[in-house]
Every structure is written in C-alpha cells, then in structure tokens.
Amino acid sequence: MPVDPAVSLESNLLLRALRGADRDLLKPHLEPITYAKGATIFEAGAAVTHVTFPCEHAVATLVITTSDGRSAETATIGHEGAVGGIVSQGHVPASTHAIVQIAGPMLRIDAYALQDVKRQSPYVRDLFARYSDCLLAQVLQSSACNALHPIEQRCLRWLQTLHDRIGSPVLPITHELLASMLGVQRTYLTRILRILQDQGLIRVGRGRITVLDRAKMEIASCDCHARVRDHYTTVLGAVYGDGGLERIEPHSLSRFAAVEVPFDEPGGKRASEMAKAGR
C-alpha cells in the first residue's frame, strides 16, 4: 500500500524539524516506499542513488561484512535520521550494506535532487550536516565499543539504541539477527541474553526482546550509548523522553548556527566561518 507523503513527512523527526519553506522544497522530490524486513536499501560498493528516511517505527542498520562472511553493525537508523549520502555530492559508492531491520514506511529522494535543495537552503544544508556528524559519532563510538567492551555491554548498548528509535520496550528482534549485528555466534548470544534476563534487565521471547528496566540497563552497560545520545542532543537538538528519541528541536541549535556562506565556496573559508560561529 502506498505511503502518504504528508503523513510520512511528520513521521521522520529530521524532516519534521524542517521549516515550512524547506519542506516545500523537498516534497516534490520525495518518493514513498515500504521495505520488508531484511530488504537491502543499498549494497557496499554500489552507487547510493537515493537518500532514504525511515518513518514511524521502521529501522535500518549499516553493516560491515568481511571477506570470510562475518558481519557486524556499525550504526542503527530509525525515524530520527536518514540512510545514504546525505552530505555527499550524490551517487558515490557505499562503504557499507544498508539493511532493513524493522519493516515499515520510508521516504526517499534522489541524491542529486537533495543536492539541489541544499544549494537553495542553508538551513537544510546545516541541519543535514549536523545529522551526518551525529551519525558519524554513532559509527565511531560503535567501533570503539566493539573493540573495547565485553559482549554483555555491547549487547545492552545495541538494545538501548533500538529502544530509543522505536519507542517501545518490546523490541521485535530475533536471536539470529542480534547475533549477526554483534558479530557473534547465535549460541553464544543466547547464553548472554539468559544472563541479562537473570539480572532482571530484559525478558526474552520468541522473535522479541522486552526491556524490563531501562534505568538498570543503563547502569549495567558501558557509557557508549550515553555518549552518542549526548552528542545528538548537543549537535542536533535531539530530545529524549521515557519512550526514547521524541523530537528534534531546531531552535535549540541557534547558539551553534553556522554563518550562511555560498554552498560551493572553498572548504577552507567555510570551515573558518563555521568555527567563528562556534561550531
């Protein structure tokens, strides 16, 4: 069933944060699409032709797969953001696989069309650049967590990330998929989940994991997820509540606002102006 673009625009926090005039620039180019669970949005090495915005409870994951077939998650994206070359010149090769973790409606825009919109609107350009910075922070923190922290804490980080993006304590995730995201064997992960369940943090069911005590989960985990949340709050204006990531408040970014300079101005001068603005 086709997705209503007007509804979906409100169902993605990044798009909702845009001003009316900026939404009007994007609307003619937005294409509704629904992905099934496990579907591929783009593959590593392939040109990224579209930027895709998950809506409602849809969630995508960026995954790195090694030559021996093993894989690990590097970032999880829900209704707070976008997947694809959001700050690139468009149609550049992807470095990761983008896979749909939770099925649902999405909106997408041709990467070249988005580039044109960013040329017309410094606000869109700045907001999307801030989001890209936050996504990079998630990727880097995830890499550090995977290298430095035990599997129990890595698992808790991942569950908190998903919890924030779907706003429900019931996470529709299988042992097999979670093991793949964490880069471990399913049998090993099952033992880890049993330990976390015995600690009263989660309840494991068929095809789902339920968060029982988020506060205790945060205490038991490393601070990697908290660091990423803080970065989203500071740079993007993300607002979190008991149900996870609730909205993006552009007005909270005013003290970080970049000086508006021509889009194609040499990077050195633009970087200098942004630094003067306190970026």
Describe this structure in words.
It is a single chain. With 279 residues, the protein is α+β, with helices and mostly antiparallel strands. The protein has one domain (5-149, 222-276): Sandwich (Jelly Rolls). 43% of the residues lie in helices and 21% in strands. The chain is built from eleven helices and twelve strands. It has helices at 5-10, 13-16, 20-26, 111-120, 122-148, 151-166, 175-182, 186-198, 214-220, 224-236, 267-276; strands spanning 31-35, 40-42, 50-54, 59-65, 71-77, 97-102, 104-110, 170-171, 202-205, 208-211, 238-241, 244-248. The strands form four sheets. A four-stranded antiparallel β-sheet has the order 2-6-4-5. Strands 1-7-3 form a three-stranded antiparallel β-sheet. Helix 4 (111-120) packs across helix 5 (122-148), helix 6 packs antiparallel against helix 9 (214-220) and helix 7 (175-182) packs across helix 8. The longest helix has 27 residues, at 122-148. Mean pLDDT is 87; it is low at 255-263 and 265-279. Pfam families: HTH_Crp_2. Residues 149-215 form the HTH crp-type domain. This is CRP-like cAMP-binding protein.
